[in-house]
Each structure stands twice: as C-alpha cells, then as structure tokens.
Amino acid sequence: MKDITIDFFEENPEDNRCDIMIEGLPGVGQVGKLVAEHLIEELGAEKVAEIQSVFFPPQVIIDETGVAHMPNNEIFRYSGKDLNILFLTGDFQSSSPEGHYLMTDAYLDIAEKYGVKRIYTLGGYGVGHLIDEIRVLAAVNSDTLKDEVEKAGAVFAKEEPGGGIIGASGLLLGLGVRREIEGICLMGETSGYLVDPKSSASVLEVLSKLTGIEVDPTKLVERADEMEVFVERLKAMDQQKSDEELSYIG
Amino acid sequence: MKDITIDFFEENPEDNRCDIMIEGLPGVGQVGKLVAEHLIEELGAEKVAEIQSVFFPPQVIIDETGVAHMPNNEIFRYSGKDLNILFLTGDFQSSSPEGHYLMTDAYLDIAEKYGVKRIYTLGGYGVGHLIDEIRVLAAVNSDTLKDEVEKAGAVFAKEEPGGGIIGASGLLLGLGVRREIEGICLMGETSGYLVDPKSSASVLEVLSKLTGIEVDPTKLVERADEMEVFVERLKAMDQQKSDEELSYIG
Amino acid sequence: MKDITIDFFEENPEDNRCDIMIEGLPGVGQVGKLVAEHLIEELGAEKVAEIQSVFFPPQVIIDETGVAHMPNNEIFRYSGKDLNILFLTGDFQSSSPEGHYLMTDAYLDIAEKYGVKRIYTLGGYGVGHLIDEIRVLAAVNSDTLKDEVEKAGAVFAKEEPGGGIIGASGLLLGLGVRREIEGICLMGETSGYLVDPKSSASVLEVLSKLTGIEVDPTKLVERADEMEVFVERLKAMDQQKSDEELSYIG
Amino acid sequence: MKDITIDFFEENPEDNRCDIMIEGLPGVGQVGKLVAEHLIEELGAEKVAEIQSVFFPPQVIIDETGVAHMPNNEIFRYSGKDLNILFLTGDFQSSSPEGHYLMTDAYLDIAEKYGVKRIYTLGGYGVGHLIDEIRVLAAVNSDTLKDEVEKAGAVFAKEEPGGGIIGASGLLLGLGVRREIEGICLMGETSGYLVDPKSSASVLEVLSKLTGIEVDPTKLVERADEMEVFVERLKAMDQQKSDEELSYIG
C-alpha cells in the first residue's frame, strides 16, 4: 500500500493542458472548499482524479444513503473558452505534519503534469467574531504578483495573516516556487464558527476578477447549508471517536 | 523486525476457501469483539493465524496465570455445511493513524488469500445513555447491498453514524472496494460504558439473518462479564502507565 | 544516521557467552534501574556496549561537571564463577510506541549475540500510596517458569499487574518467545513517588534467590539518594522544556 | 521529496574552510537566535545555504510585504582576518523528536563539509522571573574545554541547566563527539517571556572573549524589538491554527 495513491480517470492527462489550479480543501469556515465546490458545479467541471492516503484520518465517510467511501481528495478539470482550470478539493487535509508536506508535493506533481503555471489557494481567515465588512486577505509567492492581486480587491495586511499560512493553502505557495509555479492565496475573513457563504462570496468575487471566470453566486448560500449539515454530522462522529478511544480494547 | 508480522498455523491457507470474513476487533462497548468471540466459541472455529505489529501499543498482555504474551490479532476459520467463515478478532486496533491503514491492508491480504468475497464488520455505536430499543445501524460499501441488509433488520439512519466509521470496521469497507470485496458494517447501539451483551445480541440477530449462521445467544451475557473483568484490568494498567510516564527516567 | 546505533567496546562479543541478561531501564520508582546499577557496581561489571537512538528524547544529558553526552542505554558484562551476566540499563526508554518495539528488538539482538538463554526484567509496580509489606509481583513468558519464581518469593497476583506490562520490561518477555529466550519480569511494589530503595531491595532479594548472585544491599539507599538528585534535575529540565515550547520560534 | 533538502549557493563549499560554527536557532527568549542574527548583520556574513524539511511545521511564513516563503534554516559564512565562521540560524527547530536527530545530523554534515572543528551553540535558560545579574551557563562536550569557557566568564552550575539541553543546541554537542567536533553551549539566563536583548548581550560578551570576534552590541535592543513583533505575529497565527483545527473538514 502506497502512502499516497492517485487514480486518474482520463488517459494521458498530460495532453489536457490547464492554465491554473484552484485549491479549496477543508479549513476555517469551509470558505475555500465552498468556493471550489461552487465553481465545480456551476461550471460543470469533470472529475479527473482521486487521491487517497494513509495521511488522512483512519476512517471511511458514510454518505446519507449509508454507503461508505474512502476519504478522497479530488481533482476536477474544466475547459473554458479562454481558460482551462484544474480544481483541487476533497474531504480532508493531512492528519500529520509530514503528511502535509508529502501530500502537497503530490498535488504539485499533478499540477505539473497538466502544465499548470499558477495556483490559487482559497481559505478562510478566522477572526473569532461576526464581521460586517469582509476583507479578502492575500499572500503570494512572488512580489511580482502583488499589483494584480490588489487591483482585484484583495488586501495585503501587514499584521495578518499573522505570519504564516498552515496546510496545503500555504505549502502550495511555498513549494511551488521551486517548480516555478506562481501562487496566490486568498483568505476571506470569517467568524470561523459556521460554513460561511458570505466570506466565500467575497473570495469568489476577487477570484473572478483575477481569472475572468464568472459564475452566479446565488447558490452559495444553499450549498453552505448543505455543507453545514455534513460538518455537523462529522462533529457528531468525532464525539463518537472520543468515546471509542476510552474503550479501545476488550 | 517487520512492521506487521503474520504467522499462519496451517499450510497452504489459500486452499481453504472462505466465503466471508467477520471482523470483531475492540471498540465501543466491545460489541463487535463480543459477537465475534461468541461465534468463534459456539461454532468451534479454529485459530489459523496470528498478527503482531509495531502499530500495537508497546506492551505485553498478562493472562490471569501470570504468563505474558504479545498483543495479537487473530484469524479463526470455520468450515460449515453451507458457509466457510474467517473471523478476525484480537487485542487491539492500531495505536497510530497510519497503522490503521497498513493493518487493514494486511487484513485484506489475508481475506484475499482465502478467497473471501464479503466482509462483515461489527461494532458498537455509542449513544452515551442507556437504551430500551437497540437499533442496529448499518453501512455498506456498495448500494446493491442495502436491500438485503435492511431486510435483515438493520437500519440506514440518515444522520447516524454521524458521517464516518473510524478504524478497521470502517477501513475494511473502504479499502475493500478496490479489491472487489463486499463490505457490510453492523453497529449495535450501546451506552458505551460497559461491555454490552444486549447490543451484541441485537447485532448477532441481524448477522444471523444475513448469513444463515445460527448459534445460541445464551452465553453472551456470561462472556460479557468475563470480558468486563479483563477490560477493568486493562484500565488499571492504563493508570499504571500514566504513573510510569511521570517518571520515565532515573 | 541509523535509527539505532550499537557500539561494542569489545571485539568478538559473541565469544563472551553470557547465561542471562538483567534489564533495569528507567521506570516507576526507578526500582529496576536501581537494582541493575547496584549489581553492576557491586559486581564490578564492565561496560561492553552503548546504544544510541533517534527514538530517545531529542536532548543531551549534562553531568554534574557540565559535560554533555548523548542519551545512552548501556550493556555491562560480568563473568562470575558460575554465571556470566549481561546487564541492560541506561538513560531512557523509547519516546515513541514503534520505537519501543524496535529498540527491544535491538536489545534481543544483543542478547542473542552473547548466547543469552534467559532475561530478567526488573521494574516497579506503582500503587500510589506508601506500603508496609512490599510484594514482588511477577510475570513470565512460559508457564514452566512459574514454580521457580514463586519459590524465590515473587507473587503471581491474579489482578495485578492489571493485564499488561508496558515498555522494554514487557516486550523483552513477549518478543523473547520467538527467539526461545526465557523471560521473567519482577516488579517491586512502590508508591511511585520517589526513587525507592526498599522496593529495589525486595526485588534484589528475589533475583538473588533465582540467580544465586549475592551482593551486599547496604548501598542501595545511598545510590537511591544520588539517583533522586538526578531525577529532580531532570524534572527541572522538563519544566524548562515546557517553557521552551511556548517560544519555539523567533 | 526528500525529508531534508540543503541548497548551497556557492560552488565547492568544501573549499571555503571555516574554523567554527555558531548556532542560534529559535528557543527560549530567542537569546541564541538574536545573537546569531546580530553577528551575521554586524559582520556582513553571506548566506551560503538554505535547509528545508518535512520536519518543520507544515506552513509557509508570510513576510510583512505579503510574500510567502518556505520555513528555512540558513547557513551564513563570514571570512575574517583570523577566523572563518559558519552561522546556523533560521525559522524553526524540528517539530518531531526524530526530526531533531536527523536535522542535527544534517547540520553536522554541513559543518564537516566546511572543515569546522568547533561549534558554539547559543540559547536562553528560562528562569521564569526577571533577573538582575544575568549569568551565562555553559556545557561542553569534552572537559578539556571547561577552563577556557570559565575564563571567558561562563558558569558551570552544578544544578543547572537541570540535567539536559533539548533540541539542536544540545544535540550538536552530543552528536559532534562522534565526528570529533568540539562543542560549547552558552545559555543566557532569561525570564523567557520576551525576546531578551540583555541576555543576548551577556552571551555575546562571553562568545566574544572565546572567539575574539568583536562587534558593537548597540543594535541588539533594536533587533530584539523587531524580532518581538515577528514573534507576536506568529503567536497570532498559532491562535488561527487552533481555530482551524476545530474545523478541519467540511
């Protein structure tokens, strides 16, 4: 069993060149994941690969019909008129520090295979209280990218995001440098308590200006509600897990 | 020293074809382990393999006569008139996330060696309070299995088991897909506080309908009492362990 | 850098056959370590090997003159009239579960190299309160050893040591089986709060009857006092470590 | 992806012989890091290598302009009239125990490549309260070094540093022995609460006497203030991280 397994659902993926990758894995307020899933559904992107790993939590996920599937991160591909896009979203980030590095490396292998030259990583920036005016904070992996990002409405705030970005959203930028892949991280301010469609709408707006992708944001709220149900079910499972650890042998 | 060591006690295990595997490793309320051990003893199944691993907690287990043995998971085999069965039970689940994946992979290697086409994984679903009517919750790794499971009396509850199943009971389903092994998980509701023979009886009832195996459930209560003594001894050991960690050097 | 490094200080160690190994690594009340170090000094055993490992805590130990040395476990050898003995003692047990398995495997490699046929593992059994009559609890890895151990004054108590023995003292017994090395674990009851020379004296008494080794126990108290000073210094270091973790970057 | 990646920025580094290495990685009160960075800037040392690793925390660091870079430890080189010096400083220590060993081994590989014969490791010794007279505590990896160190004003205190030194500052001494590299650790007493320029000044004074390097200490206070801002930003990020862990899936 390999530490990370990637299954491609299309032959010769390297023949389907993509310009950019958009990452929206789970995180604060599910802001990034919500934007990525919204785009995938609105654009009708197609699933082209699945990623499984021993670095995920050791569990299966049960869908609402009772069918179990392995935790997956997924790659979707969309061919537009002006832009071909790879999406990275899924169930989990790595559950170990080293796994974060190795999985990000695998994501970059996929990006390179498709010829991606720029990655947008999307996330939330938790502020711990409700917000009226949602700012979209940004970080880049080359200062040549700053102008473009600021013009699209994102903010480089001197004291935020506090010195670092944890997980895939950060490491894709950092490890991308060595592969000459541009990286832009967009973080929507969020209370962090619930799946946050308003923060996602703000991130989507900046992303649209940067990429030219235009989609109707209406269904973000609906999708956030569905996601919230799922998140609540997973929290219940975590409670179950704690019980289980109390009785791990018999 | 290998990470996982499997010792077979029969030659050419691949010649002893089995139709199904029944897994009952330690977990909430010891529900699955109790059912598996009950079946093994009532049917007179024979031990055919032992599994040791560095992914187990770093300790030996002392039996009541003072003899130490390594933590083992064990494979038993039973040849019935209509059905040949492999049982998986034992002392521990993995103590690390990655170990859960690698050990489940090893369990599936064993299942494949014996030609197993379907795995039943058994466990408890902790609800944190006493229950009058015990439901048996189910999950499957293919929706073609649902009808059969529901007819046997198990329930696919939309909001339970909360989105996931942790450990071998879940991963056997998930990782079984790739090997084309059907997987059905049966979880008896339990308070989770004590070894629970009532929950086990409910799971056994559903399992009997699904497999045609019929055994007298009378001794479940007696076996639960014995298991409870062992569980209490292990809790005492955990207390000892905590003391030990406070003085790990001298 | 290897995970475990063993340096021998004598050529052809396999030519210096030993009958038994006595293990006294750090643990509850330092009971085992104190017995082992006492025997090493009273008998004048000679250091023949050092073991270093990445599984130890990531630190050096500073002696009272200010000189740093790597954490070591050590092998001493003593050639008596009737009995040749290998001692295993040292600074630490493994800091990770898997490391416990791999280091115990390395200890057994050393034992086999010297032809050891039996291992005594020594430790404390913490009861959490002061004790008048100290019992020495025992476990063995073959029931053929029980008579001999009981005659020497140790007790096989049905409910103690609570179902398991954690760390090298347990795993040497468990993993020794596969190599056909007899294993006897002797655990002196102790409050567990301080280095406990009384508990060590009780263990030593049983061990003397089992092995025929006779040493004057007088200096056990003195050695316990010295060890206590060292233990206190290490506790102070742990406090320092906690502070350090609060400021791991700058 | 390798566990540890070292990029050299000069060709044939082994041709640029250095006499000593000075290590100042993050730690209590940032005392060591502050001294190392101060020396690097005052002497105008040149960056000659960067070290990245999966053993670092899984994140990028955002500078104040919004540009992300991977966590780096860095090697600087200074060629003086009488002394050629290698400096080791950077963003993090290892986040896992085994990583501490493997990274220290990599640092020593670099030191050997440059022909280094002696390493000074610098750090703080947290006492938990404000101090009037700051002592510089010392440890060495050979007692032949003690006289020299005491003459320079450092103290070998019998009960401090409490029996051990954790992390690279300790392991460089311990693992250096096998490579015949002398090791001297200097620890300035500090409250441990803030970046501490006074403690750093005391360490610098002893180091200057030992090495003959003389630099103006005036800017230590200014640099400490800058470092404190960065430390505070990272603390804010840690808070963010805690929030993130509460919502790792969606």
UniProtKB/TrEMBL annotation, chains A, B, C, D:
> Pfam families under this entry?
PAC2
- Name the domain of life: Archaea
Supply the PANTHER family for this chain. 3-ISOPROPYLMALATE DEHYDRATASE, 3-ISOPROPYLMALATE DEHYDRATASE-RELATED
Name of the protein this chain belongs to = Proteasome assembly chaperone family protein
Task: Please give the organism.
Answer: Methanoplanus limicola DSM 2279
The organism that produces this protein has a lineage beginning with:
Archaea, Methanobacteriati, Methanobacteriota, Stenosarchaea group, Methanomicrobia
